[in-house]
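Hi Y.,

Following your request, here is the sequence exactly as I used it, all 300 residues.
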Amino acid sequence: MDKLDFPESPLQQIRAPELDTAGVSLQIKRDDLLHPTIQGNKWRKLKYNLKAMALENKRSLITFSGPFSNHLYATAMACKQFKIQGHAVIRGPELDLNNPTIRLARACGMVLHAVSRKEYRQRNEPDYLAQIAQQFPDAFVIPEGGSNQFALAGCKELAQSLPDSDYVCCAVGSGGTLAGMLDGLAPERQLLGVAVLKGAQYLHDEVLRLNPQAATRANWQLLCDHHDGGYGKFSAPLWQFCLRMRREHALPLEPIYTGKLMFALWQLIEQGYFSHGSRIIAIHSGGLQGLDGLRYRGLI
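Below is the corresponding structure, written out as tokens. Let me know if you'd prefer a different format.
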């Protein structure tokens, strides 16, 4: 087996009176259990980036992230496991060395380069990326969040691993997971993306940019009214819902991505959004390390 091919993650059946009343079934694709240290959509996105890096004979990688990022965590873990020298440009201007995500990345051997917010905003600009390529000539460049053409192949595999259903639902931050999964789903299966940030309508265009075939597919939809205040923000009811799902269903959630997805899904089910008999699969995209950052900041 290729060292980058992990066994598939399991499915968890959720049983609850609300589901019985609505006449729907709900399964969770537990991609948080995909691997002991590198999980979820961040690994799905990294997998084919690392294969492309090997094909280009690059010995290191460089990426971009916020200081509490799931992408930083997963990339650091992957660099440690596969003995890759990793660099990350961190939105700064300074590193908080007590931040648990930063501590983990440094422990894995990542070299972290803190930059000002002004410089960080240039992370997708061609001129800035050309400077990065000149500064790190042997490094393979992976964008913030990992969403690029290589990432789509890994997310397509995720979709292809799923059993038959009527709906597949995922959280949407950058659009990469949804764009890639769309290629792996049959046209009669509906793909619902729950945007986790405010004013996320622009993500529709981002999905089309990442996957132009999305323009010809009518089986996907972006739901933009379940951000619960904006990216990184969450309400007390959402956090209580996360705690309830862990308590009643042994389903761990964090309130930035997976919690918003499940909270939205639960509300839609109770509102009768899904027709009787619908089979729903929700993607648990990992990111549970984010709970440490929320605790560190005193937010939970």
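The beta strands are 11-14, 25-30, 60-65, 85-91, 111-115, 139-141, 167-172, 190-195, 220-223, 279-284.

Thanks again,
Q.
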